[in-house]
Amino acid sequence: MPVQGLHRAPDADAGPVVGLRDDLAPAYQQIQEAVARAIATGKAVTGTLRVGFSSQWAGDAVIEAADVFRQRYPDSAVRIQEVQLTDPFGPLRSGALDLQLTEFPVAEPDLVAGPVVFSEPRALMVHARHPFARRESLCLEDLARTPLVAVSGDVPQYWLDHHYPRCTPEGRPITHSATAAYWQEVQSLVATGRGASPVALRAAQYYARPGIVFVPIHDAPPIEYGLIWPVNGGTARVRAFVETICEVAA
């Protein structure tokens, strides 16, 4: 026989617990969605990614990132190759590369200019007997006092003007005495006194040789190195490598 009047008292703590659960639900859902995206991305990152670089220090950054990338995505592989100065965008446009770490600026309608990965101070590479070789540093106006060796080839004019200017900030003309298709030619022309060449200061660590001196340019903006890829080439592999190399460089 049921006992009249006997019933369970309401749980006084139920309200706060339910409220906390409701408050946490959106955050929990976001975590679940983030995990699901990470799993999906990991499954999508397979196959071979072809990455180019334009300088040895950029190559070092790519190689270091590739090691981390392979650990994160064991079903993927990374092939790395150097890109020549005379055709900086050709391999990307031909499909030989998927991604490239190179000197900015890049303003091409068929290429995406992604994040800047790192930057380097500028210097002037001069012959060891050049008057500038005894200086601790130079300014941009000094470029009007010596001929420059420039790069030839299929290189955009805006890129050349940025790295091999034809006038100083005050408008003084800068002479270009010779052009070179490859970096080794630039070094040889400088070493034989045919001209000077703007470079990243880090080049002194990689290309030191008799007859050449690297002098910092104290008022020049740094050279920025960023990632570029074709407009239609933003695959899961590319996005994952961009994220990886930015993390490694940082």
TrEMBL record:
Keyword Transcription regulation annotated: yes
Domain LysR substrate-binding: 45-247
Key words of the record: DNA-binding, Transcription, Transcription regulation
Entry's family note: Belongs to the LysR transcriptional regulatory family.
UniProt name for this protein: LysR family substrate-binding domain-containing protein
Protein source organism: Nonomuraea helvata
